[in-house]
Design goal:
Strand content: 5-15%
Number of helices: 36
Mean pLDDT: 88
Low-confidence stretches: 129-154, 452-458
Distance between the termini: 56 Å
Structural class: alpha/beta
Number of strands: 26
Helix content: 40-55%
Shape: elongated
Length: about 950
């Protein structure tokens, strides 16, 4: 394979006899110069003076006395001119993001040497045309839609009026912007290019010859530069192309014009390789990452002896990380031409988290932070490294459910105090960010000081993170300088968006020798380079060519008329990149993603389809298969070994544990799933504490229970008898009911003192209102039942029990906490409040002990309490489940009913009828639990697994 750069090097050396000391070789980008220099050295065979290597951008900048201005400063300068010319009161916050669009339009106009006076006059004329609706046809309206969004012939809109007023002054803004920038010796790129061309004297240029290599599309200033140097006899032009796409093909659109205007010394016969047979594979992949996972196999088969002749090209540069992790050991050297995104480094997440904390996470009215913003910062690796108190503080906030912590609670040490000190103003925010980054830099300085000389393992990432830290620090200081100079006056949220945008677009270059090793690159970096073996990833529509056009004020039809860049230009440019990359390669593999995900429609690139139709040779089409089969999970069985039995005895035997007790929850756990019982009560596993602004059903129920407990404590201060008058008085006092709920929220949810006002968010306010309504329904239900004697609330009851086992008797207890007990007419009601679910009607007592998805945990729990209370007092016991959300009807009764389906149901108004059978079955259940021959197994009732805390362990 004779590469393009090798051909150029040979011809240029021969043409100049190796005398290149006064020659500048200009490439579209710098990377090609490194490869070209190697070819030139081989061609010479002995030391020669190297030519100067420049990118086209460097050439223009070297010929100007201006500097390209900072993008943020440019927008700020444009804003001043905009305010002056329009007398607008629009803030910089509102102006900024479409100010960037305006500079982009000016840049394009200047690079294409547009007569801006005529261009912007035409824009004013367009306004007059639009005022006369009859002159606009459908095609014209569609053509200007990109500029005139939501434009409607039938009505004037505020948006339309705003753009029209803007068009009137575009010319003045353009001229004023130029004057303001030139006075400061700065410019945007197009302005600088245009000024260079307008004042260029080819005879005064520093080099005798300029060699332009591998360009494609030329804007007007580049074309003019080429013409002037050609006329002065100072230019040589080398174009890379192939006869395959030179006849009326979009890939050759610009090359045809360039060859006509600036002929190349290389003969056309050298550029006819694409039509020759090659090994080309089209491979469909189900996901983006699957393509990266396929790379090791492809590399093992296709890595060339000289690794630099193999390249991995990423059409979607977001695949860089998975690709790097997929490179096999067979690759000895690798050169990564694209930078590592700053957005994928710890410093980026640290800065964005800190910004979020101080801009959105702090409420100046309440003087509090939000839990989520605080906890995210405390969990960050840098915070953990800078203070040992971060993890302890996180656990404390989580344990105490501190949804809205005060700054004083967070200052556990000097670093945390500084980090969580509230601040206002953009300057203070930038100072805080700079100081935080300096402290992070101390981590790496300490690491360097303690290194023992073995830098190979740690250094790769440490250097990357140090570089990212430096980039972030300089970016923040750029913004700080603009704020101090009064240039950037925006709201904190706009500052955050700007910082995030700039940081997200920053890349950290990889250091290495570009001309050695397998190449990993983006599409743009492939310009001028040729490879024997190629693999392109994500060759999808939307990635190649890139989807969408740049936003613009200037309508499409005027852009086209004045020779400015249009979407067709961009598609033709990408077509050239695609075909040029393939033309000298011997083996090419193109992978594309078939899945639809977000903007990706799973459609292969139009260029692949086009090439499939045009190319005269067969293309191998394949599909990636995962090579994975669903793994079945083996059932989990825990044998009751002596060690397990000993743990159970230590938990449930009073002789080993004075707090030993079987609660209804523990027994329900066993009946639902023996393995769940083992995890919770034998292995002592539990779900981690989590803080959420959402109120789950368990917390909702606990708040209701506590509020109800406080109500009845107050109602029974003087007498245990509850009469209708007391209930009616409380029902009329909504403020007091809300106070009960607030008090419960403070204690169970917010974990704040009772004299502190709770900070509700929207969802929490709704939950609070629902609980107040439920309390009213409870009181109204009791009003219908009154008068009655209130016996107790949240009463702990228990009863000793002996369990027969093969090794002897286990002495334990059964019991729990009864929500409420009341009595009337010789009956004691055991009332369990329920704030969700539906009333269960078990067919018989036996059903409560048979595992099934319809088995009633609630009834089992209440019956257990009833069995205990039958032996503790003389009254009849009526177990009751009070479903608060169902209690609004006049005829509602909470007493549990039993009976077979489709048969009359019997209310359980005297539990003594069922007590004996219940106790027999309970005794059998307890003996089964302690039977060493019966293993702890997973439940057969899969529905019970849906909300189980141990679902991940079982893999169900």
């Amino acid at each position: 394979m004779e590469s393009f750069l090798k051909l150029v090097a040979a011809d240029l050396y021969k043409r100049t006899d190796g005398n290149l000391a006064h020659t500048a070789v200009v490439f579209p980008n710098k990377r090609a110069g490194l490869f070209f220099n190697e070819y030139l050295a081989k061609e010479a065979g002995s030391p020669i003076w190297s030519p100067a290597y420049l990118s086209i951008s460097e050439l223009f900048r070297s010929l100007s006395h201006w500097e390209v201005g900072d993008p943020v400063k440019l927008v700020c300068e444009l804003y001043k001119i905009f305010r002056r010319e329009t007398q607008s009161k629009e803030t910089l916050d509102d102006f900024y993001f479409w100010g960037e669009m305006l500079i982009s339009d000016f840049d394009d106009a200047d690079k294409n040497q547009v007569d801006t006076e005529k261009l912007f006059t035409n824009l004013q004329d367009l306004r007059n045309i639009m005022d006369d609706y009859t002159f606009i046809d459908t095609e014209q309206e569609e053509a200007i839609q990109q500029f005139f969004q939501n434009f409607s012939i039938e009505r004037r809109t505020a948006l339309k009026e705003r753009f029209i007023s803007m068009w009137d002054v575009l010319g003045k803004i353009y001229k004023g912007f130029h004057e303001a920038l030139s006075a400061q010796n700065i410019a945007y790129e197009g302005m600088l290019y245009r000024d260079v061309i307008e004042h260029l004297d080819a005879e005064q240029l520093p080099y005798e010859n300029y060699v332009f290599v591998g360009f494609n599309v030329l804007n007007k200033v580049e074309h003019t530069l080429f013409s002037k140097l050609q006329d002065a006899g100072k230019a040589i032009f080398y174009w890379d192309y192939d006869a395959f796409y030179m006849d009326s093909h979009e890939a050759g659109e610009f090359i045809r014009r360039n060859l006509r205007d600036f002929p190349s010394p290389l003969p056309a016969e050298l550029f006819n390789t694409l039509s020759q047979p090659k090994e080309i594979h089209y491979i469909a992949s189900s996901t983006e990452n699957a393509q990266a996972r396929y790379l090791p196999e492809w590399i093992r088969k296709n890595l060339t002896e000289q690794e630099k002749e193999t390249a991995i090209v990423l059409c979607n540069e977001a695949l860089l990380q998975p690709v790097l992790h997929s490179l096999p050991q067979e690759v000895k050297h690798v050169n990564i031409t694209m930078g590592f995104p700053l957005s994928q480094t710890p410093v980026y997440s640290f800065l964005t988290t800190l910004l979020e904390l101080h801009i959105h996470g702090y409420n100046f009215n309440s003087g509090r932070y939000t839990f989520q913003s605080v906890i995210t910062l405390l969990k960050h690796p840098y915070t953990r490294q800078l203070t040992s108190n971060a993890e302890l503080l996180e656990k404390e906030l989580t344990k105490n459910n501190r949804f809205y912590p005060l700054p004083g609670e967070l200052g556990k040490d000097e670093f945390l105090t500084h980090l969580f000190t509230p601040l206002s103003g953009n300057l203070n925010l930038c100072i805080r960010l700079s100081e935080a980054l300096q402290q992070v830099a101390g981590i790496y300085q300490s690491a360097t000081a303690t290194e023992d000389g073995n830098e190979d393992t740690k250094d790769a990432f440490n250097q990357l993170y140090r570089e990212s830290l430096f980039k972030a620090y300089t970016t923040v200081n750029r913004f700080r300088t603009l704020i101090e100079e009064g240039e950037l006056q925006v709201q904190p949220e706009t500052l955050r968006r700007l910082l995030v945008k700039v940081l997200s677009g920053t890349n950290i270059p990889f250091h290495g020798e570009p001309a050695i090793g397998m190449q990993v690159m983006g599409v743009l970096e492939t310009r001028n380079l040729d490879f024997r073996h190629l693999v392109l990833l994500s060759v999808n529509e939307g990635q190649l060519p890139k989807s969408g056009g740049d936003s613009s004020f200037i309508p499409y039809n005027l852009r086209k008329a004045f020779g400015m860049t249009t979407i067709e230009h961009k598609i033709a440019v990408y077509a050239y990149y695609f075909y040029r990359l393939l033309q000298r390669a011997e083996k090419v593999t193109l992978l594309y993603n078939t899945s639809s995900d977000g903007l990706n429609r799973g459609e292969w690139s139009r260029f692949m389809l086009q090439f499939l139709i045009e190319w005269p040779h067969p293309i191998i089409r394949e599909y990636l298969e995962a090579g994975q089969s669903p793994q079945g999970t083996a059932p989990i069985i825990v044998e009751k070994t002596p060690d397990v039995m000993r743990k159970m005895q230590n938990t449930f035997d009073l002789r080993a544990n004075c707090n030993a007790k079987f609660s209804p929850s523990a027994l329900n756990y066993y009946l639902d799933c023996p393995l769940k019982f083992y995890y919770r009560y034998v292995a002592k596993l539990s779900a981690p504490n989590e803080v959420s602004a959402e109120i789950d059903s368990a917390t909702f129920g606990s708040i209701f229970h506590l509020a109800a407990e406080h109500i009845y404590k107050d109602l029974t201060v003087h007498s245990k008898v509850i009469d209708k008058g007391d209930l009616e008085t409380l029902l009329r006092n909504e403020v007091k009911l809300q106070d009960y709920v607030d008090s419960a929220f403070k204690e169970l949810f917010f974990n704040v003192p009772q004299d502190e006002k709770p900070e509700y968010n929207g969802i929490q306010l709704i939950n609070s209102a629902v609980i107040v309504r439920y309390l009213k329904q409870l009181l109204q239900n009791d009003l219908r039942y009154a008068p009655f004697t209130f016996v107790a609330s949240e009463e702990e009851v228990e009863e000793p029990i002996h369990i027969q086992t093969p090794k002897g008797i286990i002495k334990s207890r059964i019991g729990g906490i009864i929500d409420r007990m009341d009595s009337k007419d010789g009956t004691l009601r055991i009332v369990d409040y329920k704030t969700g679910g539906d009333a269960d009607t078990p067919p018989n007592v036996e059903s409560l002990f048979i595992p099934d998805k319809k088995r009633s945990n609630y009834v089992f729990q209440t019956f257990l309490y009833a069995a205990i209370m039958c032996r503790k007092q003389p009254l009849k016991v009526a177990p009751s489940l009070l479903y608060i959300h169902r209690a609004a009807t006049e005829t509602y009764s909470p007493v549990i009913q039993m009976g077979e389906p489709r048969k009359p149901k019997e209310p359980v108004e005297d539990f003594s009828k069922y007590e004996e059978e219940f106790r027999e079955r309970l005794q059998a259940l307890l003996e089964e639990i302690f039977n060493p021959d019966i293993q702890f197994t997973q439940t057969e009732t899969i529905e019970k697994c849906a909300y189980c805390d141990f679902k991940a362990l079982c893999k169900r």
